[in-house]
Write a structure and sequence with these properties.
The chain is α/β, with parallel strands linked by helices. It has helices spanning 23-30, 47-55, 73-76, 97-111, 129-145, 193-201, 215-225, 227-234, 245-253, 261-264, 289-299, 302-312; strands at 9-14, 64-69, 88-91, 116-121, 124-126, 150-155, 165-171, 181-189, 205-214, 273-277, 283-285.
Length: 315
């Protein structure tokens, strides 16, 4: 699947979250309080390892960054032993997805200012990984042709889920495939049940938070929506990637608020967004116990299904 001309194509795996909602499950599986991305919840590989495997189908290892949090080092050290230190972006603390996205963009901008970046959460499950990564490649191609667009990957909803982000699409003129690509009318983050039901009936999509954009376009949208955060992190300048990075970032992170990228960035600039409607790739966000239980029912053996279902019923 990988192509020869990949010099400006980058991947970022977001693995800095604390995963508190699945703490009882991860403690039972691993024996400690590690976040879910460092735990083998589905199958015998951790969710982070599974994400790495998917990303590796399309992106080179040395063009993949992993965003992490310092306090989780004992959990990710062995998992990421094949990654070079300069491809691990270790935050002093978890300050939300906006800081994680911005930190990775500033680092990539140093190396490849004309780069196109794909972001991948590390707590998702796909039954059709190769098909999914083919869709990501399609989104990358679209962004390379239309650098001003940020492309989200959306899924046809199965029910009116209140804990997902929703994408309300409109007809798109940037491609001939009018059944797959759309512009975004509005982005809804965790709507109420009534709104979610209305969105579902209107043809809205679940947002996977897999996102592709040009480095410059993404930096621009963050600078406009979160100017204080942008100024704070961009002040690190050339220190990023150097031996002084840890000390400098500790000071910066202690002064910035925790900020959600979807709520504070995407929701405020829908006119810059497009969405690719995914084919059936078997996507699940494993952020909630009931989603984990449903996925286990479909993918795991009887013994594991029963044990984990009993555990999840207690959460």
């Amino acid at each position: 699947m990988k192509q020869q001309n990949q010099a400006h194509r980058w991947a970022v795996i977001l693995a800095g979250g604390d995963g508190t909602r699945l703490r009882k499950l991860t403690r039972a599986v691993s024996g400690d309080d590690r976040p879910k991305q460092f735990c083998p919840i589905i199958g015998d590989k951790t969710l982070l390892e599974q994400t790495q495997r998917r990303v590796d189908l399309l992106f080179k290892l040395d063009q993949t960054f992993v965003v992490l949090t310092r306090k989780h080092e004992r959990f990710f050290k062995e998992i990421l032993n094949e990654c070079t230190a300069d491809r691990l972006l270790i935050q002093p603390e978890n300050k939300g997805t906006a800081a994680a996205v911005l930190l990775s963009l500033l680092r990539i901008a140093q190396i490849s200012p004309q780069g196109v970046v794909a972001f991948f959460p590390s707590d998702h499950h796909f039954t059709e990984e190769e098909r999914f990564m083919s869709e990501v490649r399609m989104a990358v191609d679209l962004v390379e042709a239309e650098p001003s667009l940020i492309t989200l990957l959306g899924v046809t909803p199965e029910h009116s889920e209140e804990q997902y982000g929703w994408i309300e699409p409109v007809k798109c003129s940037v491609t001939h495939d009018e059944q797959r690509f759309f512009r975004v009318r509005r982005f809804w983050e965790k709507p109420s049940r009534n709104v979610a039901q209305r969105l579902m009936h209107a043809g809205a999509l679940w947002n996977t938070f897999v996102m592709v954009g040009h480095v410059k376009t993404l930096l621009d949208i963050i600078s406009r929506t979160l100017p204080d955060l942008y100024r704070a992190l961009s002040s690190a300048g050339d220190i990023l990637g150097s031996r002084k990075e840890e000390e400098l970032l500790s000071g910066i992170y202690s002064s910035i608020p925790s900020t959600n990228f979807s709520t504070e960035v995407l929701s405020r600039r829908p006119g810059l967004l497009s969405v690719l409607k995914l084919s059936d790739v078997g996507w699940t966000d494993l952020g909630e116990p009931h989603r984990v239980a449903s996925t286990i029912q479909l993918t795991q053996g009887h013994t594991q299904r029963r044990a984990l279902s009993l555990l999840l019923s207690e959460t």
